[in-house]
Amino acid sequence: MIEAEQSPAAFAASEHAGYVLALADDPLVLAQRCGEWIAAAPEIEEDIALANLGLDLLGQARLLLSHAAELEEQGRDEDDLAFFRDPAEFRNVLLCELPNGNFAVTMARMLLFSSYQLALYDRLRSSTDTALAGIAARAAKEVSYHRDHATQWVLRLGDGTRASSIRMQAAVEAVWPFLAELFEDGWLPDALVEAGIAVRPSDLEPGVRRYLSDVLTEATLAAPTLPAQRSQGSNTRASDAGGRHGLHTEHLAALLAELQSVARAHPGVRW
Amino acid sequence: MITIADLGILRAVEVNEDGAAVVTITPTYSGCPALAAIRADLERSLRDVGFPSVVVRTRLSPPWTTDDISVAGRRALADAGIAPPEDSPGSGRRAVIPLGIRCPACGSIDTQELSRFGSTACTSLWRCRHCREPFSHVKPF
Lengths: 271, 141
What we know:
The complex is a heterodimer.
Chain A lengths: L12 H23 L8 H29 L5 H6 L10 H4 L5 H22 L5 H29 L3 H14 L14 H5 L6 H18 L12 H4 L15 H16 L6
Helix pairs in contact in A: 1-2, 2-6, 5-6, 5-7, 5-9
Chain B lengths: L9 E6 L5 E5 L8 H15 L5 E5 L12 H9 L2 E2 L27 E5 L7 E6 L5 E5 L3
Parallel strand pairs in B: 2-3, 4-7
Antiparallel strand pairs in B: 1-2, 5-6, 6-7
């Protein structure tokens, strides 16, 4: 692979590792949010469902973190990356770190994120980074179940009773401002896309928005209009705000404090 | 009794020049917690039969699918009260009219999905309307 690389698009190993790390941090953080629902969901089947979703996401995060650790060659492993980085070193999108809110907000977030992640993994199956392609091919199948689950709930609540519909609409509006960040390109070195390793996030946007729009229509919900297509400009300008740049909401630090507490209290501890 | 070969998890077994047993397995779901147990079991059983060292590798590609579960494996699942998977969406063999999931206890196809997610990542939760037994079903994947 390395020898065959004649492309003028040169990039540093750290940039390649940084890309994989960003892809790892999204599911790592969202897995933690899913875990918070265990024993608190509206029905026991949802406790189990959200635990399963979290488990899938955690599994993806572990594979991606291990791959990032190999690429960066700093002698770190998946545990170092998960437990010994501080909030500003995390590269997840803000959507993943938002508090769970009520069940409708959790499902709205899951719908947005899984739609994006499914489109991403589908494209990454043909990444020239064969390890990444292998992880994506497996994970895409898992995420298709996540998207289906979130879709079913959004349909059921959106096209349900008057009370459920009002709450589902409010939930969609609460998470919608965080959708545009998923499609921002500014943080990603062009050379990684040109080398066929990375997928340009903005390329995923039309398909994802189409899917979301179809679900909202079927759920008799109105598409939020609030954030006036921030993505329109973000494709050309390098945005320097948001989770991909290490700028997070106040919620991430609290989430990480819990996620990292045992590993930091007992460094090197093994099960 | 079901083996990891029947489940399609076992990809290769070799003995290398140092006499070590090298076993290649593939995870089912990315986060399957059983993988660590399977790895430990492999190391222990191969040491027990005399291999001085054991290397367990995981290989991700091609991804595992429920179509890799053998006929014997499907029978073993059903015997254990777990409904085996139908063809996966990627198999190209999907029935045009999906058949019901057969109850592993009484054989009825008058069954109902209770939850898409069950006690493990790879199963969903069902119940039989005929004999009333709840059961797990390995999701086509």
